[in-house]
Amino acid sequence: MSNLIRNNAIVNDDEWITVTLPAGEEVVRKQAGKVVMFKLTGEQSCTPEQIAATVIPASGKIIVPLSVWLVRKDELAPRLAKGELGIWLATHEVLENLIDAVDDINQLPIIAVFVERFADGRIFSIGTLLRTRYGYKNELRAFGDVLRDQLFFLKRCGYDSYLIRADRSAEEALASLQDFSQPYQGAVDETQPVWRRVQR
User: Fold this and answer.
1) Are 7 and 175 in contact (CB under 8 A)?
2) Full-prediction pTM beyond 0.90?
């Protein structure tokens, strides 16, 4: 069974191949004697060697890491022109680097945001900024440590595609998109707060 949800339905065939960086050395960082669980915004997380060694399929639709796009743009530009290239970024990467790296953000048929740990709330801010400040109109996907309890709120922030963790049920996650009938606050999916939408 597929774990991809797109436009409020489970999708069996994903036409997009997510390109990953080769494994690198994971550095354990400590602050005040405790392990730091989250990467800081703007922190470098891959090496030039990893970027150069990233294997990119010769055909098909691909979603490449932002770090690879920034360095190998000339090589990948023809794929973007054909509509075969999307970009993914991790929550600690600077969103403005993506915005500056393409002429028009809506050239990208898909942008995916990778969340390493479910407690990293930056994924919500990134989605909201892409939809509101930068006017992104195409598919916005959340993947990585994406859990059922987050989907309703990710949808409110503009996500319309979710790759659920392999050990979780896509059916349960899909049901969570209906957890609330009338959200109180305005957001990306419904800009008006409930007191403006509902007549009493």
Assistant:
1) no
2) no
Question: Residue ranges of the domains in the chain?
Answer: 4-18+41-197
What does the alpha-carbon distance between residue 161 and residue 34 come to, in Å, rounded to a whole number? Answer: 35
Pick the CATH number of 4-18+41-197 from 1.10.132, 3.40.50, 3.20.20, 3.30.200: 3.20.20
pLDDT at 99 over 90: yes
DSSP at 141: E
DSSP string for 87-130: EEEETTS-HHHHHHHSS-GGG-SEEEEEESSTT-THHHHHHHHH
Cα(120)–Cα(122) distance, integer angstroms: 6
Joined together, the tokens standing for residue 23 give 């494994």
Look up residue 23 and give its DSSP letter: P
Q: How far apart are CA 193 and CA 59, in angstroms?
A: 45
Q: Tens digits of per-residue pLDDT, 150-175?
A: 888 898 889 999 998 888 877 777 77
DSSP structural state of residue 58: S
Helix (H) or strand (E) holding 61: strand 61-65
Contact status, residue 134 vs residue 105, Cβ threshold 8 Å:
yes
Angle between helices 148-156 and 122-131 (to 10 degrees): 30
**Rounded CA gap, 50 and 100, in Å?**
22
Distances (CA, A) of 152 to 56, 117, 176: 33, 18, 6
